[in-house]
Write a structure and sequence with these properties.
- The chain contains 15 helices and twelve strands.
- The protein is an alpha/beta fold and 369 residues long.
- 5'-deoxyadenosine binds next to loops.
- 5'-deoxyadenosine binds at residues 68-69, 162, 164, 205, 236-237, 239, 281, 316-317.
């Protein structure tokens, strides 16, 4: 038994060397121990339930031009769409009627007045249509603190905004240098979300060209230091026509998948009570990979409930799965899959991350002192 086995048996040290070793070790016993411990930590500290978020891909209109993304503004091959109010409300009702407990409204990034007002009114309408019982997560990009506040008041209670990489130098290589894609703006937006009171989620892409295992270890430390409530992260995938396809990538797809599973497991040991998603991107590399993520400590699944006619146009990366499975088929599929994981599907539960309550309660007690 080497020293890393000891680290896993006791509280995990978060020094960079240990994290890198856990992410890259070729020792099969270490790998198995890591995954087993992560599942144990999840079951003990977050529970053995899998929470659902019905994913509504509201619009692929986007003002940003992130080099890796299929819906970036400069990609002229994408047909642009925005769901109607009615379609969004119907999707939310579908989630509510099918006991999903919560939805995510995800969209390309826009910050014009019409968009801000539209999201506000959709939040209000969803509340009304679902008896205020459906929790809504927003994933609509960087916004001002005022917009975050407006949406929070209208009923958005969670927000996902990936940092993409916590390494500012790497972040710069992924985005145009036009002053509209700044690392520090992303960071500030994440800080505003927390300040506003959202359950705050972030995440990274794994196996990017130029990304090292050390950088991924630093991403884990970033999540811990930022004290996030939720993380969604998955492998980087090539996109047709992307500016990045010529870049040399040291990671092949199998390595990106393996790194992604290890990132989930190590993060679960570092932050035992947060919510961690089994992201859709995993499934592009291996159809079984989202279930594998549950076997590594993930506890959130996001069945896609976007109307089928829009699926093709919301392709952030090539070969996105589930273009033909409608919401009902998707829910049924995941219900069946979860049966083989030793976990239970959390029907009708919002599935708030326990970490959010633990950190805010701690904050209150600090204030009292
Ligand atoms: N590969 C993997 N993930 C991607 N995303 C966007 N493009 C890609 C890609 N090519 C992820 C980003 C973004 C989220 C909505 O989708 O991390 O934050």
């Amino acid at each position: 038994m080497n020293k890393y086995h000891n680290y896993l048996l006791n509280d995990l040290s978060s020094d960079r060397e240990t994290l890198v070793e856990l992410l890259t070790s070729q020792d099969p016993i270490l790998r198995e121990t890591l995954f087993d411990k992560a599942v144990m930590a999840r079951n003990l500290h977050a529970g053995n339930k899998i929470y659902f978020r019905g994913l509504i891909e509201y619009s692929n209109k986007c003002n940003k031009d992130c080099k890796y993304c299929g819906i970036r503004v400069d990609n002229t091959t994408t047909t642009r769409y925005t769901m109607t109010d009615n379609e969004v409300i119907e999707a939310a009702r579908f989630a509510w009627n099918n006991h999903l407990g919560s939805v995510v409204i995800q969209s390309g990034e826009r910050s014009d007045k019409a968009f801000i007002t539209k999201i506000t009114s959709l939040l209000e309408k969803i509340r009304e249509a679902t008896n205020d019982e459906l929790k809504v997560t927003l994933s609509c990009g960087e916004q001002t603190e005022e917009t975050f506040r407006t949406w929070f008041k209208a009923g958005g209670s969670r927000y996902l905004l990936r940092i993409e990489t916590s390494n500012s130098g790497l972040f710069e290589t992924l985005h145009p240098t036009d002053g509209k894609h700044l690392f520090k703006t992303r960071l500030r937006a994440l800080e505003s979300l927390k300040k506003t009171g959202y359950q705050t989620g972030t995440g990274v892409m794994i196996g990017l060209p130029g990304q090292t295992a050390e950088m991924l270890a630093m991403d884990l430390t970033f999540f811990k230091n930022f004290n996030v409530d939720m993380v969604g992260m998955g492998p980087y995938l090539e996109t047709e026509g992307s500016d990045m396809n010529d870049a040399v990538n040291q990671w092949n797809q199998a390595e990106r998948l393996e790194l992604s599973l290890r990132m989930i497991a190590v993060l679960r040991l570092l932050m035992k009570d947060i919510n961690i998603a089994a992201s859709t991107a995993l499934q592009v590399i291996d159809p079984e990979a989202r279930i594998a993520a549950i076997h590594c400590g993930a506890n959130v699944l996001m069945p896609n409930i976007t109307p089928l006619q829009y699926r093709e146009s919301y392709q952030l990366y090539d070969n996105k799965p589930g273009l033909t499975m409608d919401g009902a088929q998707n829910v049924h599929y995941w219900e069946e899959q979860i049966k083989h994981t030793g976990c239970l599907p959390a029907w009708d539960e919002a599935g708030d991350p326990l970490h959010y309550y633990n950190r805010t309660r701690k904050h209150e007690s600090e204030l009292i002192q």
